[in-house]
């Protein structure tokens, strides 16, 4: 089964870590994998995007125009990834981050988005009368799934496991690799820290389970 995935977020959200763990896990499972990172180049930090293809047979091209799964973790990531969406795409976004544009100390007003993603209006952050940020969810996706990953990380677990929650969500939605393979990859990357602080292992695996509980399998 072939699956094409686009993950996007701000620098520091761990997008490339998620993609790398997923790619390594699929490779260990004996699948064909292509992982292409794309880092933002804007002066103040851009959107980090990861392109991942996983297949049971040889992958013909490293690039793809549309994705089966798109995961967007910030306002800018939503806007950057809409081009990879079509009628077959499942679009997953963090609604605790996209529910309203980020407010800074200079903000004068904010227009909230509608609760139903199918009828959302753009979110606008106004700074001295100038639109600073605008978000519009895709209107052509097969499925749009909002998850409060950031809120869960901050309020129930720890902000540092935000990306592991996302990894669990992606794993459950695709079932592209077994859970055990993902855990092996996590142990490979973080095993040293886990040995020094076993609570970190429990925290990461709780985050993984929590992410898996937020969605159902997408066919």
Question: Would you kindly provide a written description of the structure presented here, covering whatever features stand out?
Answer:
By secondary structure, the protein is α/β, with parallel strands linked by helices. The protein has a single domain (3-213), classed as 3-Layer(aba) Sandwich (Pyruvate-ferredoxin Oxidoreductase, domain 3), CATH 3.40.920.10. 36% of the residues lie in helices and 24% in strands. It has 7 helices and 9 strands; from the N terminus they run βαβββαβαββββαααα. The protein has helices at residues 15-28, 75-81, 95-98, 149-155, 162-174, 179-196, 198-213; strands spanning 3-10, 32-38, 47-55, 69-72, 90-94, 109-111, 123-127, 130-135, 143-147. It has a 6-stranded mixed β-sheet, with helices on both faces. The longest helix has 18 residues, at 179-196. The radius of gyration is 17 Å and the shape is globular. The model is unreliable at 100-132 (pLDDT under 50).
N-to-C CA distance: 11 Å
The number of domains is: 1
Low-pLDDT regions: 100-132
Helix % is 25-40%
Strand content: 15-25%
| Structural class estimated from helices and strands | alpha/beta
| β-strand number | 9
The CATH fourth-level homologous superfamily: Pyruvate-ferredoxin oxidoreductase, PFOR, domain III
DSSP summary: helix tally = 7
List the secondary-structure elements in sequence, H or E: EHEEEHEHEEEEHHHH
The CATH topology turns out to be Pyruvate-ferredoxin Oxidoreductase, domain 3
Proper CATH architecture: 3-Layer(aba) Sandwich
Q: Using only CA atoms, what is the Rg? A: 17 Å
Largest sheet: 6 strands, mixed
Lateral arrangement of strands in the main beta sheet: 2-3-1-4-5-9
What is the mean predicted local confidence, pLDDT?
Answer: 81
Q: Return the CATH class.
A: Alpha Beta
Outline: globular
């Amino acid at each position: 089964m072939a699956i094409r995935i686009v993950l996007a977020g701000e620098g520091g959200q761990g997008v490339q870590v998620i993609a790398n763990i997923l790619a390594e896990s699929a490779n260990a499972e004996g699948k064909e994998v292509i992982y292409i990172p794309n880092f933002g180049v804007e002066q103040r930090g851009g959107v980090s995007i990861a392109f991942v293809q996983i297949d049971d047979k040889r992958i013909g091209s490293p690039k793809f125009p549309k994705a089966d799964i798109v995961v967007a973790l910030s306002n800018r990531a939503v806007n950057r990834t809409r081009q990879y969406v079509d009628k077959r795409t499942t679009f997953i976004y963090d609604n605790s981050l996209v529910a309203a544009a980020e407010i800074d100390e200079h903000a004068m007003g904010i227009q909230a988005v509608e609760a139903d993603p199918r009828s959302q209006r753009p979110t606008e952050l106004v700074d001295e009368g100038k639109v600073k940020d605008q978000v519009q969810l895709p209107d052509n996706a097969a499925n749009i799934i909002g998850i409060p990953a950031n809120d869960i990380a901050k309020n129930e677990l720890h902000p540092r496991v935000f990306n592991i929650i996302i990894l669990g969500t992606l794993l459950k939605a695709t079932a592209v690799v077994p859970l055990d393979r993902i855990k092996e990859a996590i142990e490979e990357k973080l095993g040293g820290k886990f040995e020094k602080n076993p609570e970190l292992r429990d925290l990461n695996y709780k985050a993984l389970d929590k992410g898996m509980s937020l969605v159902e399998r997408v066919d």
